[in-house]
Amino acid sequence: MNERITIIFDNQETGEVLDLEIPLNITANDLIVALNNAYKLNMDIDNIFECYLTSENPIAFLKGNKMLEDFGLHTGTRISFKRGKK
User: Which of 41, 54, 68, 80 is the most buried (most CB within 10 A)?
Assistant: First the structure.
């Protein structure tokens, strides 16, 4: 399966909102690492507790080795990155 969807990536740290085409046959961790590298999110990918994203429509906590298709993501899903103050 090579299904791809277009999501809205909302970097709430910078205010940047982008439409991104992503494959559904990758894990949440794969997406997190890719977005971290591409958009300099400064996530410590060695600390599993810091490696997550949230989504709306459907509401989900994206993390781990679960495939994106298993979260029920679809075109128009908003995936957000935000961290509290340290």
Answer: 68
CB atoms within 10 A of CB 79: 24
H/E stretch holding 50 reads none
As given in the structure block, the two tokens for residue 39 are: 């958009």
Q: Round to whole Å and give the CA distance between 86 and 75.
A: 33
Q: Nearest-CA neighbor of 51 among 60, 59, 61? A: 61
pLDDT-derived band of residue 37, with 50, 70 and 90 as boundaries?
Answer: very high
- The DSSP secondary-structure symbol of 26 reads S
Its pTM stands at 0.91
